[in-house]
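If you are new to this repository, start here. Below is one unmodified record pulled from the training split, so you can see the exact layout before writing a loader.
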Amino acid sequence: MNILDDDNKINNYVIDLAVLAIKKSKIHPVDREFLSGQLEQILSIQSNKFIYHNLELENDLYTTLLFACLPEVWKKITLDEVIRMSEKFTNVFSYFTLIKFTYKYIEIDIIEHILNTKNVKHSQAFLHGIIDYLECQWNVLVKSESDLEDFRDGFIDVDYEEWLKIKQRFLLDKTVKPAYTSYKEIKGYINQLVTNWKNKSDGF
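And here is the target side for that same chain:
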């Protein structure tokens, strides 16, 4: 099946892939072994479109693990592409998953970039939703020892070094900050970020 650049076909494929993964993967909701049989098709799709349509699924657990199993999809993605796709989000949950994945797995901080997009600044619902998410769910942004063991023990079946290379490539952009990796640091950082945005935004 050649779907390449057709957005409707890509969206349908992404939805079908999620349904099939949940049914066929040995590890719920998706694993690398299952994806290996889909890899040629996945890599035939423009990476930014594959990422975008998966972020729009509103299924954080599936999409986060899917991406963790597919460093190939993120190898050439740029910050500009990430921001452009976020400008097309139709629901706030897409932002939650994007922030969580980039912070926790790629270990980069692009939260301020996202908050400063037109899509967020012009939507009180998006802005308030993201701020509330950060305030209440900041702890999910930290990779736990259990998460690291998932890589070491082959649970995710991807070489963690692949993600470190992707992180370093993103950090070549000096506007991208490395993520904090301890609960104490991230809690203090998010508390300050939330306070700053509440002080300069209406409606909080």
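Two things worth knowing about this chain: The beta strands are 108-109, 177-178. The CA atoms of residues 134 and 190 lie 7 Å apart.
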